[in-house]
Each structure stands twice: as C-alpha cells, then as structure tokens.
C-alpha cells in the first residue's frame, strides 16, 4: 500500500484529498472491497473513519468521504478544520464491521500493516475496545 502525498498543508475551510494505491486489487472474493481509512493524533490510537471504501464509521463527520475501487482509493475532507490535523492511513483487512465495534480481524489472522508500518490487530469481542498499534511484528 502506498499513499500520496506523504505530507501536505491545508488552509482551514478548504477541501483536501489523500490517495492510496495497492499493487493488487482489493476486491475480496465475497464481493466487498476492504479498504479503510484511519486518522491518528499524537499519543492516541488510530481512529476508524471509513471502512469498505466509502462507509462512514459511527460518529464520523460527513466532511470525510471515501471513494475508489480495485487498486486506487481516495479519502476526501470537504472542509478542513484545525482538529483534522493528524496522520492518515489506509489499510486493508478482509474483515467486516459487525455491531457497534469494528472487528479488524479474527485472532488467527496475521496482523496487517498499517500505512506501510507494522501494526498489531485486536479483534473487537463483546464490549472490549479494539485498536491497531504501530510498532509490532507484521507480515
């Protein structure tokens, strides 16, 4: 997975977009495309914004939108706000969002790579929280 641009400055109120490219199609055999976008702020776990290319996760502002198919995807922010500053990642994991918590992957799956960096993946089970952490082994 690769993203462009690697960094950008945006004037508040202006729109912006980030592109994500995969070396192979992300269309899953079940007909879904499991491409998600995350926002991470310093000292915080990544926050899920968009899953399955264009679906908003609960509570995410409609200023954020996702689009794309196959190997090319885009995250758009219609009106940038100061609070939107952070690191954005695209990630693909063949999992669905079930219930109120995002289920990144089942325990037997290998941890995914988050934005080209290592990540561990915690499954959302019951009322447990789940998030991906950078810095662990990844394959």
Automatic annotation (TrEMBL):
Record-level GO cellular component terms: extracellular region; immunoglobulin complex; plasma membrane
GO biological process, alphabetically ordered: adaptive immune response
Domain called Ig-like: residue spans: 1-90
Keyword Nucleotide-binding listed: no
Keyword Ubl conjugation carried by entry: no
Pfam families for the chain: V-set
Highest taxon listed in the record's lineage: Eukaryota
Keyword set, alphabetical order: Adaptive immunity, Immunity, Immunoglobulin
PROSITE patterns found in the cross-reference section: IG_LIKE (PS50835)
PANTHER family: IMMUNOGLOBULIN LIGHT CHAIN (PTHR23267)
Name of the protein this chain belongs to: Ig-like domain-containing protein
Taxon lineage: Eukaryota, Metazoa, Chordata, Craniata, Vertebrata
């Amino acid at each position: 997975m690769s993203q462009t641009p690697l960094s950008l400055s945006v004037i508040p109120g202006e729109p912006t977009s980030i592109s994500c490219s995969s070396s192979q199609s992300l269309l899953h055999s079940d007909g879904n495309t499991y491409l998600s976008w995350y926002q991470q702020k310093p000292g915080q776990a990544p926050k899920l914004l968009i899953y399955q290319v264009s679906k908003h996760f609960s509570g995410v502002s409609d200023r954020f939108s996702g689009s794309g198919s196959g190997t090319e995807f885009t995250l758009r922010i219609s009106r940038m706000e100061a609070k939107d500053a952070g690191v954005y990642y695209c990630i693909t994991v063949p999992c669905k969002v079930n219930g109120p918590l995002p289920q990144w992957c089942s325990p037997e799956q290998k941890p995914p790579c988050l934005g080209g960096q290592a990540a561990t993946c915690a499954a959302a089970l019951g009322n447990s929280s789940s998030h991906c952490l950078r810095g662990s082994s990844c394959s």
